[in-house]
Amino acid sequence: xxxxxxxxxxxxxxxxxxxxxxxxxxxxxxxxxxxxxxxxxxxxxxxxxxxxxxxxxxxxxxxxxxxxxxxxxxxxxxxxxxxxxxxxxxxxxxxxxxxxxxxxxxxxxxxxxxxxxxxxxxxxxxxxxxxxxxxxxxxxxxxxxxxxxxxxxxxxxxxxxxxxxxxxxxxxxxxxxxxxxxxxxxxxxxxxxxxxxxxxxxxxxxxxxxxxxxxxxxxxxxxxxxxxxxxxxxxxxxxxxxxxxxxxxxxxxxxxxxxxxxxxxxxxxxxxxxxxxxxxxxx
Length: 283
Description:
The chain is of the alpha/beta class. The protein has 2 domains: 2-145, HUPs (Rossmann fold, 3-Layer(aba) Sandwich); 156-277, Rossmann fold (3-Layer(aba) Sandwich), CATH 3.40.50. The chain contains 10 helices and 10 strands. A 10-stranded mixed sheet has the order 3-2-1-4-5-10-9-6-7-8, with helices on both faces. Helix 1 links the parallel strand 1 and strand 2.
């Protein structure tokens, strides 16, 4: 049974991501953990210890959090009642990304699915602070859903890579599982800068092909000025339903997402974006 963590701040953006999640896994037995965290604006360590009024404020936030989770659960059950799905609610006085990290470890979460936390009203992913920090710290795959993106059964997956990764079955298992359900094709994109692949990269490419031997896939090499340009152009020329990457900290992925310029302007993607950690999951 798959365990999926669904953070929510009760926004339309968060609800949209939750609805995407239950539709993506409608044919699989899952436990969905609805997570809401709250931190009172006036929170102060000294007051929380000595002020009864501050404690009552804490209770107000807690009650609002629990009521909000019940409303979300009701909406999902009314619209997508599915006997294969179990919903559990988690309300926590904590910082969002700290709680995500703790829940991933304690519940042995397989996947985190969340709204983009920073793209209010936008059609594309614009990574906000919460999403960037979650991608950096979460030890399991994370799927970010653009605001207002309506679920469509995925048929074509874009998988950019520089082949500087020691691929394992764990990295690719989620994609392989989804491919078994949706029979999609994985388009493996390598952006080149005038240099051929080194021997190590060629070996990694071969290993990747072996892992995906039972999944429809194609390899592409294109010459562009930047990886970002290559991703955008490929999406413009092809019908892509989901973007997937492995977050190798020493590869182009980190430069793509985490350099200061990107943190300021965001990385714009109009489709769901699956980030797969390169390290050991649940560590």
